[in-house]
Amino acid sequence: QSALTQPPSASGSPGQSVAISCTGTSSDVGAYNYVSWYQQHPGRAPKLIIYGVNQRPSGVPDRFSGSKSGNTASLTVSGLQAEDEADYYCSSYAGINKWVFGGGTKLTVL
Amino acid sequence: DVQLVESGGGLVQPGGSLRLSCAASGFNFSSSWMTWVRQAPGKGLQWVANIKEDGGVKNYVDSVKGRFTISRDNAMNSLYVQMSSLRVEDTAVYYCVKEGKWSFEQWGQGTLVTVSS
Prior knowledge:
heterodimer; A: mainly beta; 3-stranded antiparallel β-sheet; 9 strands; 0% helix; B: 7-stranded mixed β-sheet; 11 strands
């Protein structure tokens, strides 16, 4: 049950696009299309923004998109806005009703 | 609206026990898998345990197996975790989470557990 690997930080200017990677193994990210992403602002609970690799819950702007290739999933934030500055976590089903999270990426809007 | 309200956190000595509770409302609790996720201060998220709708299946991360017990009371719309033999490394904010479509759909605000002498 090792954590998924995310870059510790990412940044971009308002209006730009930023991609955050999430690397797992053939037992989690590579095995299932059950990758999800969470946004967490300081002092707040995480919020689901992507599920099933590339599905957005109701109310989440379409600036947020997800994808997966092999053992690596990615979250892309397009048209960066100031309020997108937050920590982002990926998660994947790892089989036998177990789940694993990434270490988190701090996104800075310059 | 979905509401998940955790309680029961606090300061406990190493080796001690604590029971966290989560009061759920705004959805069909008895039809939802439920999960506990924790976050150590300044650190990332860690899945801790989950429980099936009827309580018949329970799963744990290896580091808490044999020490934590997840349970639920569908009549009271409540989720629990009994934590024993607590260690300093169990210090974290514990979130009660409603599972959704292969994801963690709704989160409570969390309750802080501090294990320290």
